[in-house]
Amino acid sequence: MRFRTTHLFRRVIQSLAVRDRMAHDVFLSHSSKDKPIADAMCASLESAGVRCWIAPRDILPSTPYAEAILEGIKGSRVLVLILSSQSNASPQVMREVERAVHFQIPILPFRTEEVAPSADLEYFVSATHWLDAMTPPLDKHLQYLVQTVQILLARTPAHSQSAPVTTAAGDSLTIEPDPLLSTLEHENAVMALAFSPDGRYLAAASGDVVLWNVASGEMEDTLQGHEASVRSVAFSPDGRYMASGGEDHAIALWDFATRKIVRKMERQEDVLTVAFSSDSRLLATGGRENNITLWDVSTGALAMTLEGHANWIFSLAFGANGRSLISGSADSTAMIWELASGKPLWTFKADDRKLKAWVTTVALSKDGRFAATGGNRQTSKLWDTATGKLARSLRAEPGALDLVEAVAFSIDGRVLAVSGEYLFDARVDHAVKLYEVAGGKVVRSLAGHKDKVYCLAFSPDGKLLASGSEDSKAKLWRWEGAAGAQVLSAGQG
After folding, report:
1. Peptide bond between residue 56 and the one before it cis (omega within 30 degrees of 0)
2. Closest CA to 487 of 165, 216, 97
């Protein structure tokens, strides 16, 4: 009789495996070329009752490599670094050590060669006591390592547990005190961000279009096709194309598979925003003109022009149903357009004071219930798309002047991320604020950027939030859904 594993049984086995891998004390950081030493070290520690996390053994099938590594580090109480010429030259080892320092996890270097740490590694381990294991036999050094690790574990407390935040809807958001996943360095300010539909790549408008591998955190390509700085970037939902708009008045349509421009469209002024329709057939563009142009993606022909704003167009976003488009303008309004008629369905007036308040950013929730707007001299706002009425204004702290640059809904629509800068009498705050949509309260602030945060993007699977700033950095923050609740990991970077 053949035994057929049921879906439920597989899930039980997987959950037990996850729980088992989370129960560890030591993370072993090593180059893949030092695997024999790492395996011997793991065996010695575990024979003494010290639980280890080691790659690739503890990476579950189908789990992204970078995600598994981060989980392993943040669940550890000590990181043992196998210091060799190979690990000295490994960017992955460098990132693991940096994350351990950020978590305030003790690092124990185990030097297997007569080699000094690289300049980057030395920055993190120069004040740390090393264990030298350059003379045979290795077993003698491993025994001493086990004793040292046991002493360190006795001094190092276990990690604190996360606490749930109850929302206005009565459910909970579990907020964990974990740091960001990675920081991506650029040469210029990061003006726009977009994830590829499969979540594997992050495109950044930073001078040119800079393409990052999300799993490894490595820069994969720089796409040069504009004669001036790129201000906006977007992927078509079918994954075939990427569009970029720049200060050269051009819109470039890229074949993403080949990374080549297949056609260019021109406007009269700078292109500040681009957005694809949900069926990937239309590309909407706006900028330092009063109108919105919609282009046929397959031919590059102008399909429609939307007129109604009285000033520049800063931001565009299509609704998930493909029948509507929202725009934000320097004329102090946001409009939801009905594409069938080419006319505005709703006009939201964001100017709630005597000052002219630009609407610099807009977003639509995936279910279409809410529109979000933000801009200079104003709070971010949530609008009811069924009635066209203001649902609520969102203010991070009393007394702050909110200069909002970006808004983005989480994939499930429960949280709105807001960024820019917040001005107080004696300080400036550049943290990304995460608001509960149902109640309007801040459930988390993501601090780490040193200047104004221009752009935000959630990954298609809802597990990551990307932010880009004037400080020439993009940051990837963990946002992981589990069992109907969202788990956020955030911190300093």
Report:
1. yes
2. 165
Q: What pLDDT, in 10s, does the model give residues 181-234? A: 889 999 999 999 999 999 999 999 999 999 999 988 899 999 999 999 999 999
**SS3 of residue 144 by DSSP:** helix
Instruction: For 380-406, write each residue's pLDDT tens digit.
Output: 899 999 999 999 988 766 655 668 899
- Residue 338: beta bridge partners? 324, 343
Describe the chain by its helix, strand, coil percentages, rounded to 5. Answer: 15, 40, 40
Report residue 212 CA to chain centroid gap. 12
User: What phi and psi values does residue 480 have, to the nearest 5 degrees?
Assistant: -115, 125
CA distance 368 to 277: 14
Alpha helices in 126-236 (DSSP H): 138-155
Cβ-based neighbours of 160, under 8 Å, separated by 6 or more? 177
The whole-angstrom separation of Cα 12 and Cα 4 is 15
Give the angle 146-147-148 at the CA atoms, nearest 5°: 90
Pairing of strands 453-458, 271-276: unpaired
The answer to whether the CB of 467 falls within 8 A of the CB of 421 is no
Q: What is the pLDDT of residues 62-114, one digit of tens each?
A: 778 888 898 899 889 999 999 999 999 998 999 898 888 877 788 899 999 98
User: Do you find a cis peptide bond into 398, omega within 30 degrees of 0?
Assistant: no
Closest CA to 117 of 93, 138, 88: 88
DSSP state of 34: G
**Distance separating alpha carbons of residues 279 and 169, to the nearest angstrom:** 32
Beta pairing partners, 266:
250
Task: Please report, as a single letter, which amino acid is at residue 412.
Answer: D
Indicate if the pLDDT at residue 356 is higher than 90: no
Residue 299 reports pLDDT greater than 80: yes
* pLDDT category of residue 479 using cuts at 50, 70 and 90: confident
Give the domains, in start order, of the chain with CATH numbers. 7-155 (3.40.50.10140), 172-489 (2.130.10.10)
What phi and psi, each to the nearest 5 degrees, are found at residue 93?
-60, -40
Task: Specify the DSSP element, H or E, that contains 237.
Answer: none
What's the full length of the chain, in residues? 493
Q: Give pLDDT, residue 17.
A: 40
In the structure, what pLDDT confidence band is assigned to residue 427 with cuts at 50, 70 and 90?
A: low
The values of phi and psi at residue 481, to 5°, are -85, 140
Half-sphere exposure of 83 (CA within 13 A, CB side): 27
